[in-house]
User: What shape does this take?
Amino acid sequence: MKKSAIAFLLLILFSGTIFAQQNNYRPDLFFREDWKETPAEIPLSQKHVDNVELQVNLYGAGKDSLKKSNHEKPVDDPFYVWSGLCLGNWMVTLKHKNSNVNLAEFAKIKWRSKQVGLRQLRITLKLADGNWLISDQSAGPSKDWRIWEFNIQDIVWHKLDAERITEIGIAKEPDLSSVEAIGFTDLMPGGKSAACSRLDWIEVYGKPVKR
Assistant: This one.
């Protein structure tokens, strides 16, 4: 084969690689947390986090009653976070030890959860500038475990008071290009098994940002 033909083929191959990279606009999985398969315990803590790259933090008056739960029956009962015993509002967040995450454009968050009563489980974010946000979209009640997927660009964000765990007004065009922590709350105390939130696992899809 002539050198000119080889060079032409290499150019096509290189151009195809660049084109594929440019069109890979959907971010990859940034992290997933499943919680360790250990006996039920109160309160939820770092020792219950399965992903060694993540740090868990708890907020609100009800944080000390959050339970890392599991039951022998049914046999497929997952290892999950449960809010049923919380005497006040609560929030759980997960922070990557090395990187923030860009949640702009085509970022997504998925989780498997089960709410009971009037509970609506919402996404919370701590931005790199220290501000807190909470999503208008939520995962509602379900009689069985359900997987929810949230397109970040479809969400209207509200400001969050991270001490009282309550919404304090709409956040106008927040900058999601560097998010420090991702969490969840239903903005309510627990009501035991009749009124509570449960979260089995969570996945965050976004581009890592050097911290």
In short: The CA atoms of residues 55 and 95 lie 5 Å apart. The first strand starts at residue 29 and ends at 33.
